[in-house]
Amino acid sequence: MVAEIIRQLDFNLAYAKKLVQDINEEQMTIKPGIGLENHPAFTLGHIVTSYANLVNLLTGEFILADGFKEAFQRNGPGDPTLPSEDSNFYPSKTRIIAELEKQHKRLIDALLKMDHKKLQSDLEWRLSSFFPTYLDRIMFVCVNHYAMHLGQLAAWRRAMNFPSALKEMK
């Protein structure tokens, strides 16, 4: 099961990078309309913090680049904080991608070292009625949560008249 999760993670990382490859620094914080408040800078940075939180759950180590927690961490649905359009509030696109790659590697390393018995262990958290085990939470964060936010970024691209990034994936 871990190998399958890693394949999803690798695809998601490649797709995330493709989604922003043709977006310049100034465009990273544009909000093109209502419902598209999660601009590219926030979307990718938020994925970074979710990975750092998951690695912390699996290893007990919360490691995140300076400024990322303050800029990107949210308390889930209902958090009234909206991303800023001030590009100076966020790290550069290059730095966000670098931290995304770093957290991606950390997460894969943690998954490969994880005790397979622990994967089936119960885990109490906000969505445990849907996802009661460590494996369920890992799947949620690595597949569902990541895909939800990449879908937001794909919608942002359409609103900004960028071409499909998925069409270019091979």
Characterize the structure shown.
The protein has six helices and no strands. It has one domain: dinb family like domain (Four Helix Bundle (Hemerythrin (Met), subunit A)). By secondary structure, the protein is mainly α. It has helices at 2-20, 40-59, 68-72, 93-113, 116-119, 134-159.
What attributes does this structure have?
6 helices, about 170 residues, mainly alpha, Four Helix Bundle (Hemerythrin (Met), subunit A), about 0% strand
Summarize the structure.
By secondary structure, this protein is mostly helical. It contains six helices and no strands.
Shape: globular
CATH topology: Four Helix Bundle (Hemerythrin (Met), subunit A)
The CATH superfamily bears the name dinb family like domain
As a whole number of angstroms, the C-alpha radius of gyration is 16 Å
Structural class: mainly alpha
CATH class: Mainly Alpha
Secondary-structure element order, N to C: HHHHHH
Portion in helices? 55-70%
Report, as a whole number of angstroms, the end-to-end distance.
Answer: 24 Å
The number of E-state strands comes to 0
Q: Specify the CATH architecture.
A: Up-down Bundle
The biggest beta sheet is recorded as: none
Report the sheet-strand fraction: under 5%
Low-confidence runs: none
